[in-house]
């Protein structure tokens, strides 16, 4: 099984250790030519074409919370034009990876509101839950509620993706998991909608859908889904060791808009009436904050604003 973590903890470390940057020091560092970020393609299969995202809701989610996440996923490949910048245009960056476009659609949804495996899960439990939707050309995503503890959650990961063998034996199943950090570690897994645990205590951004935990889940879901389609079996696009790779979005950790630096998410859009921060539009009038994604064409972290 290949397992790939979201590098939100790295962000907190950078925030904690970053020193205020003066204009003069920025000028000095600008004189040093930085090496471009490059994710190497390791010649493995990527997920392309039409891909169903099957959701397993583990624990209690309100109908509103479920609709926010479903609307986000629908926005990625929506045929209905959203105002620019759109979530669909963000997702189209994946077309620049080997093999062309991947189109995602919402597939089956399974509700497990009775916590069938308890409220403390290990990685093997996540795989077991993901395996329930045993279908081809799909990514099975387990979403855990705010009162569910998951092995490594808040300590080393906010979400993860990997693959496991299906019951047929030869076919690999791509899966992902993201947890709701609202009550467990919003300062780690819901930044920048919550003040970080360490580092400069600047005011957090206002969540665009009014739910710090779920809007934080959107950021981490975006991270693991981009990683899933561009590095599904640990031999796609990544930089560094295969056991702890930097992927399409995790390579751009903490960047949401232009001018970002550790502790500052960058320039984003702000709704004048609600004060909510966002950088893409979606279906049903939704707005979301999505992280930057590495673009193979430019070898840069692409931001939407």
Automatic annotation (TrEMBL):
The keyword Repeat does not apply. Residues 1-23 form the signal peptide. The keyword Secreted applies. Pfam families: Phi_1. GO terms for cellular component: apoplast. InterPro entries: EXORDIUM-like. It is found in: Secreted, Extracellular space, Apoplast. Keywords: Apoplast, Secreted, Signal. Its main location: secreted. It comes from the Eukaryota. Transmembrane segments: none annotated. Belongs to the EXORDIUM family. PANTHER family: PROTEIN EXORDIUM-LIKE 2 (PTHR31279:SF3), PROTEIN EXORDIUM-LIKE 5 (PTHR31279). This is Protein EXORDIUM-like 2. It comes from Daucus carota subsp. sativus (Carrot).
């Amino acid at each position: 099984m290949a397992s790939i973590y979201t590098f939100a903890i790295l962000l907190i470390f950078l925030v904690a250790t970053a020193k205020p940057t003066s204009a003069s020091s920025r000028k000095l560092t600008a004189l040093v030519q930085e090496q471009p970020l490059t994710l190497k393609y390791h010649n493995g299969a990527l997920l392309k074409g039409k891909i169903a995202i099957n959701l397993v809701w583990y624990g209690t989610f309100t109908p509103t919370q479920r609709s926010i996440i479903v609307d986000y996923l629908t926005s990625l490949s929506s045929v209905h034009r959203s105002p620019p910048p759109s979530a669909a245009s963000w997702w189209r960056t994946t077309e620049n990876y080997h093999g062309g476009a991947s189109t995602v659609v919402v597939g089956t949804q399974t509700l497990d509101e009775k916590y069938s495996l308890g409220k403390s899960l290990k990685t093997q439990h996540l795989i077991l839950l993901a395996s329930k939707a045993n279908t081809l050309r799909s990514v099975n995503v387990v979403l855990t509620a705010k009162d569910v503890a998951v092995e490594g959650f808040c300590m080393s990961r906010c979400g993860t993706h990997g693959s496991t063998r299906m019951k047929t034996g030869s076919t690999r199943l791509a899966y992902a998991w993201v947890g709701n950090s609202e009550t467990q570690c919003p300062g780690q897994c819901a930044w920048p909608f919550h003040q970080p645990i360490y580092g400069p205590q600047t005011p957090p951004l206002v969540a665009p859908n009014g739910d710090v935990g779920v809007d934080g889940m959107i950021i981490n879901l975006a991270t693991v889904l981009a990683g899933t389609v561009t590095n599904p079996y640990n031999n796609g696009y990544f930089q560094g060791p295969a056991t702890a790779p930097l992927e399409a979005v995790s390579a751009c950790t903490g960047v949401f808009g232009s001018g970002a630096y550790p502790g500052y998410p960058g320039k984003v859009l702000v709704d004048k009436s609600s004060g909510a921060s966002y950088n893409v539009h979606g279906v049903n009038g939704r707005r979301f904050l999505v992280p930057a994604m590495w673009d193979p064409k430019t070898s840069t972290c692409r931001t939407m604003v």
